[in-house]
Design brief:
7% helix; 153 residues; mainly beta; PTS_EIIA_1_perm; transferase; 2 helices; Glucose Permease (Domain IIA); eight-stranded antiparallel sheet; three-stranded antiparallel sheet; Dup_hybrid_motif
């Protein structure tokens, strides 16, 4: 299978997924990956982390179906489902074919934090073998939306 490049869906600081305050992500139950703590801006655009098709889509999370039966999940904050979509604007629909860097969602990390919720964003290779993921930036590094984040071999 060919290597897939996963880019950062948002601007922020990279952290290990084990630091996410949710055991499903921290224990890699849904798969390995990294977490991005977003820059605290009032409005932030989230972009597609790769070329693919929008599979599952919620205001606070989406799964992107990729070639080779692979999928990437991006979850905007933790427990943000409780916001019922408030503060999130979707720019795509389920089934939309997207390219890496396409605008998918606009949200407010400031508003999510003000609601008392964690803003960290897991970027997870669903059901992937951890040994097939290569992290391209060090933990603690700042990335911009669209910067290389992971290679999935």
């Amino acid at each position: 299978m060919s290597t897939l490049r996963i880019v950062s869906p948002l601007a922020g600081v990279v952290h290990p997924v084990s630091s996410v305050p949710d055991p499903v992500f921290a224990n890699e139950i849904v798969g390995p990956g990294v977490a991005v703590e977003p820059l605290r801006t009032q409005s932030q655009v989230v972009v597609s982390p790769a070329d693919g098709v929008i599979g599952a889509l919620h205001a606070h999370a989406f799964a992107l179906e990729l070639p080779g039966d692979r999928s990437v999940l991006v979850h905007l904050g933790i427990d943000t489902v409780r916001l019922a979509g408030q503060g999130f604007t979707l720019h795509v629909e389920r089934g939309t074919r997207v390219r890496a860097g396409d605008r998918l969602v606009t949200w407010s990390p400031v508003d999510v934090a003000a609601a008392g919720l964690a803003t960290v964003c897991p970027v997870v290779a669903l059901q992937a073998d951890r040994d097939l993921l290569e992290q391209l930036v060090e933990d603690g590094a700042t990335v911009q939306a669209g910067d290389p984040l992971l290679d999935w071999h």
